[in-house]
Design goal:
The complex is a heterodimer of chains A (399) and B (311). By secondary structure, chain A is an alpha/beta fold. Helices cover 42% and strands 19% of the residues of chain A. Chain A is built from 13 helices and 16 strands. In chain A, the strands form three sheets. In chain A, strands 3-2-4-5-7-6-13 form a seven-stranded mixed sheet, sandwiched between helices. Chain B has one domain (5-310): 3-Layer(aba) Sandwich (Rossmann fold). Classes of the chains: A alpha/beta (399), B alpha/beta (311).
Chain lengths: 399, 311
């Protein structure tokens, strides 16, 4: 039986952590993820978990401590945002290449320059090649549900990769929403115990982790890791199927909305999906064949599945909530466009970078994007492929 | 039980031969002695910073380590050790641990004094039960002898070369052992390879079997960086101690204790003369460098004697 409650995304994630009762939590505070370890510290203080909760001196060290703890044979977790995630960068790659299924909660926040504490995906997108599985939530329920699935996905024997559970900073991390929680017993039964095959503290045989991999060996290690990421797609779907069977909520690699007969569609991530769905509904009433895809799993990227879902659209706008400075579009666009490149008949595609540093995204904006897509669908002319949306014209303000 | 070298050497090796360290390198000697200090029935997890030692002792698919070993990066060994130690506590609590494991961390001076300093300081403050061994060869040797904050003044390093306007490194080294002591750790010591290794062994054993964070700073000569013949390793160490360049002492629960006082304190020149890295100091016109080195060593030695006599 689900328990109805009202929680922020951060408290929902902290609740999932408490229910899973991990062995080691290495924390370092950073807005807006800080509440997660704060809630957890109270669970520790109240004796509700058995976790070794260590307050380390940096995010680099929190991820490094997780590497040590997970390699030693334990479930290790942490949480961070923005500059904290960037500071972990080096060791994220180490965690993934050591094949350690650490779970990292990320309340996604803009990267500094200028400093900004609000939401976009510049932090998590900067780590898209780190080897972490990345799963994104639209709301607190998804953040909670994704977290409950994370350990099992990462610990799958032919995967063994760390997992990033991403929620939108402040929008999801701090806003209170209704949520269905599962009982502690049901969660523990679903997640199960961690039984790694080899670990540092195993008495029967010692283990060496993190070798110097010379040229004759390095590439084999990387290819094995790449295969693991491919396997993760199946594991994510398997765990989601069991999750649906157990708790009744359905998850996939992405979530299409009114896409079956859509001619114009958006591809986006996270909390913006709710806003965009409202625009789709309005436009559908006006007879526009509009739809959208909300990408849940960014790593592994569901390229074939996305291409299959988008192949009958005439025009698609990818909404990127991070600026990659490639001068030709954001990361979600690059991956989506690449996914469609081998389709015999493929939609015209444009990229719109929006919502940076917490800039609002509105139903009207979504409708304007659809209007642009309709024009592209009618004329076959994309116009500028890579644009920004929602920024003020600073030249006008100066005048 | 009294220390007996023969007895210690008859223990099974836990740092196996076949590693790729240079002849005359102190790092392998440190590892063997460090592992000998473990009681045979105890197991260990060794956490190692990126270093000559790491690339030479765990080159896939071979490892020189008989015990569990983890390397993650250059600057985070103490944080990794914190994680392993926390895992150990978590598993112990859940009754999942069969054996007694000791957590050891080892890094060079680059990975300890410099880039790994934050992580070391954090782990010491948190009080994890582990022992950190710094194998201090006084420069970044793995990348080719660049200066570190452990490099002595006047030493030639590839980033502090002597020249028309330079007499080598400009600054005196950081006194890391003293900084570690300032963390209030229960045990800190300086040692090196002396005679029958009694000093090293006893300090390493005390450190490993002290509850809480312990630190052992090992002067660990490098034949390539210091420029001495490989067979002179023991001589270099003895001279470092007898000139008081590297005093042997320990600090137990804040109490400073001198481990060795040379019968005759030798001039620093005798230590410097053995090494190519100080060659330029002996050129006409550079005599002042030797004098300045002597003054620095004398001042540090007097400070140490004062601390030890006060306690």
């Amino acid at each position: 039986m689900s328990i109805r409650d009202r929680l922020s995304g951060n408290e929902a994630i902290a609740t999932a952590m408490r229910q899973i009762n991990p062995d080691v939590f290495a924390m370092f505070p950073i807005t807006p993820s800080t509440e997660i370890p704060q809630y957890f510290a109270q669970y520790v203080a109240d004796g509700r978990v058995d976790t070794e909760f260590i307050c380390v001196e940096s995010e680099h060290s929190s991820m490094s401590a997780c590497i040590g703890a997970e390699a030693a044979g334990c479930r290790a977790i942490t949480a961070t945002s923005s500059a904290g995630l960037s500071f972990m960068n080096e060791v994220l790659y180490v965690a993934a290449s050591c094949r350690l299924p650490i779970v990292l909660a990320v309340a996604c926040r803009a990267l500094t320059g200028p400093i900004n504490i609000n939401h976009d995906y510049s932090d998590s997108m900067a780590e898209r090649d780190s080897g972490f599985i990345q799963i994104y939530a639209e709301n607190n329920q998804e953040a909670y549900d994704n977290y409950l699935q994370a350990h099992r996905i990462g610990e799958t024997p032919d995967v063994r990769l760390p997992v990033m559970i991403c929620e939108d900073g402040f929008i999801t991390s701090h806003a209170l929403e209704n949520i269905e929680l599962e009982s502690d017993e049901a969660v523990r039964a679903f997640v199960g115990e961690y039984h790694p095959e080899n670990y540092l503290l195993k008495s029967e045989n010692p283990l060496a982790v993190g070798p110097y991999g010379t040229s004759p060996y390095y590439m084999e290690a990387r290819v094995a890791q790449a295969e693991a990421m491919k396997n993760a797609k199946r594991a994510i779907l398997d765990v989601a199927a069991d999750f649906e069977k157990t708790f009744g909520r359905k998850y996939g690699l992405f979530e299409p909305y009114r896409l079956e007969d859509a001619e114009v569609a958006l591809v986006l991530m996270g909390s913006s999906a709710g806003t965009a769905r409202a625009a789709v509904d309005e436009l559908r009433e006006q007879g526009v064949r509009a739809g959208l895809i909300k990408v849940r799993v960014f790593r592994p990227f569901p390229a074939e599945e996305l291409a299959e879902a988008l192949k009958d659209c005439k025009a698609v706008a990818v909404l990127d909530k991070s600026e990659g400075f490639s001068a030709c579009g954001g990361p979600l666009f690059a991956e989506t466009a690449a996914a469609c490149v081998n389709l015999d008949r493929r939609p015209k595609m444009v990229d719109i970078v929006y919502g940076l540093g917490g800039r609002d995204f509105t139903v009207d904006q979504a409708k304007r994007v659809f209007a642009r897509l309709e024009k592209i669908a009618a004329t076959g002319e994309t116009g500028p492929v890579y644009t920004h949306m929602g920024q003020r014209d600073l030249r006008e303000e100066v005048q | 039980m009294a220390y007996n070298l023969r007895e210690q050497m008859s223990k099974p090796e836990r740092f196996a031969p076949g590693h790729r360290l240079c002849a005359g390198c102190g790092a392998g000697v440190t590892c063997r002695a460090m592992m000998r200090a473990l009681e045979p029935e105890d197991k260990a997890v060794v956490c190692n910073a990126t270093s000559c030692l790491e690339v030479s002792s765990f080159q896939y698919p071979y490892t020189a380590w008989e015990d569990s070993y983890i390397h993650a990066a250059f600057e985070n060994t103490s944080a990794v050790a914190s994680g392993v130690e926390s895992a150990l506590r978590a598993m112990k609590k859940k009754g999942k641990l069969k054996d007694n494991f000791k957590i050891l961390a080892i890094g060079g001076d680059g990975g300890t004094y410099d880039i790994g300093f934050q992580s070391l300081s954090g782990a010491l403050e948190r009080g994890h039960d582990f022992t950190y061994f710094c194998y201090d060869n006084e420069a970044y040797m793995n990348t080719g002898t660049q200066r570190s904050s452990a490099t002595p003044r006047f030493a030639s390093a590839t980033t502090t070369p002597p020249g028309a306007e330079s007499v080598g490194k400009k600054e005196n080294p950081k006194d890391l052992t003293q900084i570690v002591v300032a963390h209030g750790v229960p045990y800190a010591a300086q040692t090196t390879f002396m005679g029958n290794f009694k000093d090293f062994h006893e300090k390493a054993h005390r450190a490993i079997y002290t509850e809480g964070p312990a630190f052992v700073n090992v002067l660990c000569p490098c034949p390539r960086g210091w420029q001495y013949p490989a067979e002179d390793l023991a001589l270099i160490c003895k001279m470092a101690v007898d000139t008081c360049v590297w005093p042997l002492y320990e600090v137990v629960e804040g109490k400073w204790m001198l481990s060795y006082e040379p019968k005759k304190k030798l001039p620093v020149e005798e230590f410097m003369r053995l090494q190519g890295r100080f060659k330029h100091c002996f050129k006409p016109g550079n005599e002042w460098t030797i004098q300045a080195a002597q003054e620095y060593v004398d001042r540090k030695w007097e400070e140490l004697l004062t601390r030890c006599s006060q306690d």
